[in-house]
Design a protein that fits this description.
The mean pLDDT is 97. The two termini are 13 Å apart. The chain folds into two domains: 2-65 and 373-422, Urease, subunit C, domain 1 (Roll), CATH 2.30.40.10; 67-363, Metal-dependent hydrolases (TIM Barrel), CATH 3.20.20. It contains 16 helices and 15 strands. The longest helix is centred in the N-terminal third of the chain and has 17 residues, at 105-121. β8, α5 and β9 form a beta-alpha-beta unit. The chain is an alpha/beta fold. The structure holds guanine and zinc ion. Zinc ion is lined by residues 71, 73, 226, 264, 316, 319.
Length: 425
């Protein structure tokens, strides 16, 4: 057993933050030997229950759950900062040519290793990430993630049309490859597979139908895709599927909306789309730095909360501009006041932090497993140092409330705030 004494941040079932200024976190093996949170709470209440256990004292530090990135592309690590006049030219000019390099397994392995190191430096302990259309890009990622003992989810991208040579796959082979990868990796240690149609314009009806059949056959596998990100993209889907009620309903018609289905962006939605998200149990991955960088639009928090469907925060690197959850939370705060059905909403820092930890975990169907420091959660957590920079030290020392403290870190924080990332292994 390991015990840590420091300030501790965690979340209650109603999404509010619980903060122990002087807390104790005890980590020990569960029935299967994996370290989980055994006890958490005020130090002086709990310490007498653990007389023989050595306590690592971390004065001035904050223990917090590892962040969960609900949508990212590991092969786009080097695509960050590629400017374009919107999504479709960005895909054509930068992203597809770059992703074609992942046919080379050794290259994919090197990028996967760098990517996982970068996530750790930024305090991200679980990600739902796209690979590329090459099955070897999935093997490379899972091999690296498994060696680090991480809880990670990825899948081979499906894209058998409107895609250039080098990334376009073959319909029948893509479905065979997907099922083989599910059987090879899903549920191995802490790894999970996601069926990954890139987006409706890049997948033939036969490929979408096959993806939906696999989603029905493997209900605890994840599904991930993109929807309603960009106005030109939405118009293109309207032309491809003139009978469909909306872009989102195309996925529904192929059986691709369900629990454990995570759709990136969800910007250009109406209330019927929101109700479809709610009734199917699908979740949105809100990617504000990407939406700002590519000029895609603003996620409508007011609409999402009024209808009531699940969502969490995501970087969407390389459309997104940062691996740092602090940058993503700050961008979400800005976006939360733009383009809302009803104006005047201001997201609280506790809500923002929840959306990138326990909320993102819930969107994955992994509440109580990751994204929190409640009893029984896997012990993926961070040691934050609020004195990491002169300005952070000055500003956090002035905080008069938990909201002020969290806001200071959201606005001023980056990888320097993350002193250590501890992984349950
Ligand atoms: N839509 C289809 N592919 C992509 C992608 O790689 N990034 C983003 N942001 N949107 C997409
Ligand atoms: Zn994306």
């Amino acid at each position: 057993m390991h015990a840590y004494r420091a300030a501790i941040l965690r979340f209650a079932d109603d999404h509010s933050a619980i903060y122990d200024e002087d807390g104790l976190l005890v980590v020990g093996p569960d029935a299967s030997g994996r370290p989980v949170v055994r006890t958490v709470g005020p130090y002086h209440d709990l310490a007498p229950n653990f007389p023989g256990v050595a306590v690592e004292h971390l004065p001035g530090r904050i223990l917090a759950p590892g962040f969960v990135d609900l949508h990212i592309h590991y092969p786009q690590t080097d695509v960050i900062g590629s400017p374009a006049d919107g999504l479709l030219p960005w895909l054509e000019n930068y992203t597809f040519p770059h992703e074609s390099r992942f046919a080379d397994a050794a290259y994919a392995r090197g990028v996967a290793a760098f990517f996982l190191d970068e996530l750790a430096r930024n305090g991200v302990t679980t990600a739902l990430t796209f690979a590329t259309s090459h099955p070897q890009s999935v093997d490379a990622f899972f091999t690296e993630a498994q060696a680090r003992g991480l809880r990670m989810i990825t899948g081979k991208v499906l894209q058998d049309r409107h895609s250039p040579d080098g990334v376009r796959d073959d319909t029948a082979q893509s479905l065979i490859d997907t099922e083989a990868l599910i059987q090879r990796w899903h549920g191995k240690d802490r790894l999970g597979y996601a069926i990954t149609p890139r987006f409706a314009p890049s997948c033939s009806d036969a490929q979408m139908r096959g993806a939906g059949a696999l989603a029905a056959k493997y209900p605890d596998v994840w599904v991930q895709s993109h929807v309603a990100e960009n106005r030109d993209e939405v118009q293109w889907v309207r032309e491809l599927y003139p009978q469909a009620r909306s872009y989102l309903s195309v996925y529904d018609n192929f059986g691709l909306l369900r629990q454990r289905a995570v759709y990136a962006h969800c910007l250009h939605f109406d209330d019927a789309d929101r109700a479809l998200m709610r009734s199917t149990g699908a979740a949105a991955a809100i990617s504000p730095t990407s939406n700002l960088f590519l000029g895609s639009g603003f996620f409508d928090y007011e609409g999402a909360d009024r209808i009531g469907y699940r969502y969490g925060l995501a970087s969407d690197v390389g459309g997104g501009t940062s691996f740092s959850p602090f940058h993503t939370m700050l961008a979400a705060y800005v976006v939360g006041r733009e383009g809302q059905t009803k104006p005047g909403l201001s997201l609280r820092p506790q809500q923002l932090w929840w959306q990138h930890t326990a909320g993102a975990a819930a969107a994955l169907g992994l509440d109580g497993v990751i994204g929190n420091l409640q009893k029984g959660c896997e012990a993926d957590f961070l040691v934050l140092n609020p004195q990491a920079t002169p300005l952070l030290a000055r500003k956090t020392a002035l905080a008069n409330s938990l909201d002020e403290l969290l806001f200071s870190m959201i606005v001023l924080g980056d990888d320097r705030l993350v002193e250590r990332t501890l992984i349950s292994q």
